[in-house]
Known about the structure:
Layout: E1 19-24, E2 30-36, H1 39-44, H2 55-63, E3 66-71, H3 75-89, E4 105-108, E5 117-120, E6 129-131, H4 137-147, H5 158-167, H6 172-175, H7 189-203, H8 208-223, H9 227-245, E7 257-264, E8 268-277, E9 280-290, H10 297-309, E10 320-322, H11 331-341, E11 346-348, H12 353-376, H13 380-394, E12 403-412, E13 415-425, E14 428-429, E15 435-438, H14 447-469, E16 497-501, H15 504-517, E17 523-527, E18 534-535, H16 550-579, H17 591-601, H18 604-609, H19 612-616, H20 623-636, E19 642-643, E20 650-651
Parallel strand pairs: 7-10, 10-11, 12-16, 16-17
Antiparallel strand pairs: 1-2, 1-3, 4-5, 4-6, 7-8, 8-9, 12-13, 13-14, 13-15, 17-18, 19-20
Helix pairs in contact: 3-11, 4-9, 8-9, 13-16, 14-15
Amino acid sequence: MADPSSYRPKPGEIPDSPGVYRFRDGHRRVIYVGKAKSLRSRLANYFQDLSGLHPRTRTMVTTAASVEWTVVGTEVEALQLEYSWIKEYDPRFNVKYRDDKSYPSLAVTLNEEYPRVQVMRGPKKQGVRYFGPYAHAWAIRETVDLLLRVFPVRTCSAGVFKRSAQIGRPCLLGYIGKCSAPCVGRVSPEEHRELADEFCDFMTGRTGAYLRRLERQMKDAADDTEYERAARLRDDITALRRAMEKNAVVLTDATDADLIALAEDELEAAVQIFHVRGGRVRGQRGWVTDRVEEIGSAELVEHALQQLYGEEKGDNVPKEVLVPALPEPVEPIAQWLAERRGAAVSLRIPQRGDKRALMETVHRNAQHALALHKTKRASDLTTRSRALEEIAEALELDSAPLRIECFDVSHLQGDDVVASMVVFEDGLARKSEYRRFQIRSFAGQDDVRAMHEVVGRRFRRYLREVQRTGEWPEGEESEHGRDEDGRPKKFAYPPQLLVVDGGKPQVAAAQRALTELGVDDVVVCGLAKRLEEVWLPYDDDPVVLPRTSEGLYLLQRVRDEAHRFAIAYQRSKRKNVLKEGPLDTVVGLGEVRKKALIKHFGSVKRLRAATVEQICEVPGVGRKTAETVAASLAGAAPGGPAVNTATGEIVEDDERPR
């Protein structure tokens, strides 16, 4: 635990101007990013008496080992730089809204020659028009199914589209009238794009004019006694109205707005967003975050706005954003939103009328989301903290192990020996830092030797960078945990606790590897499966944690995750090996000719019995290739006959060269 006074900047060093600051830990890892109108006054708040700080803020400043800052010209620039750094560094003490990428959206791929309507999740792509997000994917599919009757836009994948074009027949949707079948030329690319544009116009809320046009066409068709066409138009109008009913009118003035509401307590906060377009609720999403620092509603709103609009541009940013509290000051964030949209954005608190009533509805949704989250993860942050404290107390550590790494070895009866490394930070899995190892130096059921090798390889990589620079790197690429060629470093930070899956022999092997490398600041322990005992390197007796201990439960989760990850890697290698057949060993034989040979002879067994001349009869197979195939298959057959590559005849056992 560091003393903040040890790295506190000297008086007068911090400029009194807008900027962005970063706190780093002892390994130069960024753990917190913040912005300030005045860097001097803002940073001074962190170096006051520790008893006056919020508990999580106190943990942050005692974990940090240094602070640095970057001066910018305006508060808007500070806002932009803070957002980009939070995305880049992923600091563990910043507000993190969880599940922000799990909500599905309705997407129209306008960047393709034949736009496709589909459900999409994850980061947004350029050239794709998005609507939503929605709470459930089935809600999108129901809406699309209704609209395809009127706007028969392509919904198939690229593979299905290409296949239909090759065989000259559309898929089922093309036959039942829910796709215009551009794959077989029923409509031109221009006509199909016009359908996609009309689909987008309808989804954006411009529904009244389109419905009135359809009603007029229906009456004209009836007047001209085209009753079948009139009935079809009537059904189209009914389908569109049913789709519209799924999104109730909430604002009568056809407002385009996003409404953001908060529900919070001392430990967590829930954010709910309603996306209103054309007066109708077109999408909904929600986030939950731990309150990792002492911030109020205004700061939480500002973080939510950054998360929501940081990667949005143009019409994806609405004309109006309604919030429960305004950031202070409000001008920089309003200017930032205007730059994202390319036009003015109204950022305000609704005071009365329909918008105020709708905001109360959004707030009730936020309260329900927070209550549901607490039900699912009751006292989650408190439980994780208690588990880490119990581990520290049981193993007599100086502080709670904020980073835990666990190693496991897996093999199949001594073959395909592999190992895994999983990482847990603050009691949560850090899957982006998982690593797997292939043991090539030996084979066999020697888990102890494999554990020694894997731990040694992991920490040699860690020491190599330190020895290269003499300290943790300062370069722009390296300080982000990246090598000079831009690739992420694999072993940038050491753990406080190293766990191995096994008992005393495996623990001793891991400790020996660390001792040989001179690493003396990492504690090693092992968790044996039989009695769930915790073994330490130099103790003859294990440490026994109570079965109800949160610390033991966390160690079990870490161990089981390492075991799962190792088994998955070992099975993937085994699967790849099993895929290889006798023809895969033939040099120069590609997939096309492999399939041709199997199709011609029916099986590898018949191919093995064929002569060179018979193999040459396969289209695309020349004599040289046929001789190679015959020789390879003869060698691949255990105890099978040899083949004279010159004549293609089978050579008996007593005729083989000695």
